[in-house]
Amino acid sequence: MSLPLRLIVLALPLAGLGWIWSTTRHAAQAGVEWEVPVTGYDPRDLLSGHYIRYAYVWPGQAEGEDLFATGTLCLIGHAPHIDNAYALPANVPARGCDGVVRAGSAPALRSGRVYVSEQSVNRLQAALANPRQQVMLRFRLHQGAITPITLQP
Amino acid sequence: MMPSMAERKLKAWQAAGIIDGATAQRIRAYEAANSRPVALWAVVGVAALAIGLGVISVVAANWDAIPGETRLALHGALLVGLALGARGPALVQDAVVFLFALLGLAFFGHLGQVYQTASPTWVALGLWLALFGPALLALGRGWLTAGLLVAGSVAVPWFRVDDPALGEALTRHGPGLIRAAAECTAPVWLLPLALWGQSTGHRRAFWGPVGQLALGYAVGAVSLLVLGGALGDWARSDPGGYGRTATLAIALILGAAGLVAAWRKRDAEGEARAAVLGLLALATLATYPLSGGAMAVGLLFLALWSGIAVATLHAGRRSLFQLAVAVIALRLIVLSFEEAGGLLASGVGLIAGGVITLAIAWAALQITRRFAPAKGGLA
Questions:
Q1: CB pairs below 8 Å between A and B: how many?
Q2: Do A21 and B64 touch (CB under 8 A)?
Q3: ipTM for the predicted complex
Q4: Rounded to an integer, what distance in angstroms lies between the CA atom of residue A20 and that of residue B11?
């Protein structure tokens, strides 16, 4: 194995990971912060490894209304507070929306997951299991993508 | 210090006249000069293990207390250290490159933890394979790296199969099915690559396993496909004909890989390899029209594995031949139980089923004893 080739195949993954780290870090700090109420995704099994899975409760969603058909959601409100959310039909410009979630698929608008530390996991589990307590998810919205930040009971 | 057991042996051998006094003395002198302080090394080893475990548990207990980016930086430093240490004897280099690639994969999960990002698993796996695949291919020296490379190449298309954003290939019959079939067959192309690698004469301990695992994946996947043919009539649930095109795509890719394998190597093992790929392509083609008929698909499975058994005989591979015979015997046993489904409700049917199972097992044993190539044949 020649030295230049060895250097290239070992430097490529390091440089690639460095680039991915930097873009991920940049994306995680960009965008506007919003808050949305959530419930536990599966009451029998809230935890999935170190992650808590949750289901979004988008404000303004009428009973039986399918908000998720288009995979795109229009948020109305003043960040971080959402007053109302409604499904945005495909190919319709997002006029009048204060934020637009482009999840790409319906499941991504229904549920998500967030990494939780071991110190807070018991508190969050109890809060999500309690129907009278509302748990808020603070997330960052950047170019239509949701990046969860924290769960707050 | 001379261990007392060796000393006793020396005295016994001397008394029995096997060695003379001068030889015994030379052995004592050699052992005294070359003896290792085993007890001391054991203590050092235990201490090192305790320190290592202690460091791991301190880090694990305070994982959440360490700022995320500090953790990522430490992870990155570990990767740089492993990249610098990826040299030395074959075993060491293989283990270091394996760890390097594995920790690289863990880095994606770690990034997700720290920045709460979520992307489809196949995207992370695909990026990992693109970044670390070249290192595994260029620096792999043995089974560990070969296994990781093949596992990664297989995992990427399989995690892509049912990504909703790509058209839910398996649940909806659409063009996504053809894409998924072609992609899931693609890892078979590691076999021609491995043959080229072996022909260069370097790193045979790496290229050999890569080729074997790629072929093993093809055999396993097509066997499952044929078994799946018994579950229902594929044509009925495939009005758009996407399933037909998908099986055709799989057969074409396997057949093409078989042609390259036949062209690359011209010894018995190369012929066997090419023949197996050809058989897999034919079995894939035949599964679609035969699907739904349990007996027909069962016989197709037996024909496929009989062909594989003949190929392993041709290549002189003893253990693979025994495996093929065992698979055939198992399928025969299952087939006999399936066909005698109604009989099993009665005592006589159960007795007959047991006798048939014993007969098949006995026949399989006789066949492997009589025909299996000798141990240490062509490797």
A1: 81
A2: no
A3: 0.73
A4: 68
Structure tokens belonging to residue A124: 């969050």
* Phi and psi, residue B162, nearest 5°: -110, 25
* Cβ-nearest to A21 among B72, B132, B165: B72
pTM metric for this prediction: 0.76
Using CA atoms, how far residue A35 sits from A109, B9, B113, B327, in Å, is 14, 80, 20, 57
Contact B131 A119 (CB under 8 A): no
What the block records as the tokens of B151 is 């596992």
What tens digit of pLDDT does each residue of B60-111 get? 777 778 888 999 999 999 999 999 988 888 888 898 999 999 999 999 989 9
List, in sequence order, every beta strand (DSSP E) within A11-153: 32-40, 47-48, 51-56, 72-78, 81-87, 99-102, 111-115, 135-142, 145-152
The predicted-structure confidence for B18-59, as pLDDT tens digits, reads as follows: 888 899 888 888 888 777 667 787 888 888 889 888 888 887
Between the CA of residue B160 and those of A40, A130, B101, B167, what are the distances in Å? 27, 37, 21, 10
The 8-class DSSP code of residue A148 comes to E
Minimal Cα–Cα distance from A54 to chain B, Å? Answer: 14
Token pair, residue B95, equals 């283990």
Mutation site for B-interface testing, chosen from A5, A24, A138, A149 by largest number of B Cβ within 10 Å: A24
Amino acid at residue number B9: K
Encode pLDDT of A24-47 as tens digits.
Answer: 898 888 888 999 988 877 666 666
**A41 vs A51: CA distance, rounded Å:** 12
The answer to whether A63 touches A94, Cβ cutoff 8 Å, is no
Task: Please report how many Cα atoms fall inside a 13 Å half-sphere around the Cα of residue A125, on the Cβ side.
Answer: 14
Contact residues, chain B, for A13 at CB < 8 Å: 79, 83, 100-101, 104, 131-132, 135
Segment B219-254, tens digit of pLDDT = 999 999 999 888 888 888 777 788 888 899 999 999
Sort B267 into a burial class: Cβ within 10 Å, 0-12 / 13-18 / 19+: exposed
Distant-in-sequence, close-in-space partners of B299: CB < 8 Å, separation ≥ 6 = none
- Which of helix, strand or coil describes residue A34? strand
Which residues on chain A are in Cβ contact (under 8 Å) with B107?
Answer: 17
Nearest CB to A149; choose among B63, B116, B118: B116
Task: State whether A10 and B135 contact (CB < 8 Å).
Answer: yes
Q: Taking the CA of residue B119 as centre, how many other CA atoms within 13 Å lie in the half-sphere pointing to its CB?
A: 16
Closest CA to B111 of A136, A147, A9: A147
A-chain residues within 8 Å CB-CB of B64? 117-119
